[in-house]
Design a protein that fits this description.
alpha+beta, 6-stranded mixed sheet, globular
Length: about 100
């Protein structure tokens, strides 16, 4: 699982390193893995204006990991395409399982 490089376990949850492309035709979370940047790729349908893409990202990740929206937060890269996201109460094993079902190696 090469995408494992984009995850790290921290106290209280996990941190995901993402590469986000806003303004795509369809939202796709996750959409792939970039092995050079070691980031999981995400496509969002919202434009990167007034925080709409960030809101959509948080909602999509909350749905993906089946947690409350309040359990997902952007810890770095709020105004950048490369973001680090903290997801509370999610274990590394669960995250690997969920992402493994949605990503191809």
């Amino acid at each position: 699982m090469p995408f494992r490089d984009a995850l790290r376990e921290v106290s209280g949850g996990i941190v995901l390193d993402l590469e986000v492309t806003p303004g795509s035709k369809h939202a796709c979370v996750p959409s792939g893995y970039n092995p050079w940047r070691k980031r999981i790729e995400v496509k969002l349908s919202q434009a990167a204006q007034k925080g709409k893409a960030n809101e959509q990202l948080i909602e999509q990740l909350a749905a993906l990991f089946d947690v409350a929206v309040s359990s997902v937060s952007i810890i770095s890269g709020a105004k950048n395409s490369q973001k680090s996201i903290f997801v509370k109460t999610v274990s590394m094993d669960f995250a690997l399982s969920v992402l493994g079902k949605n990503l191809k190696d």
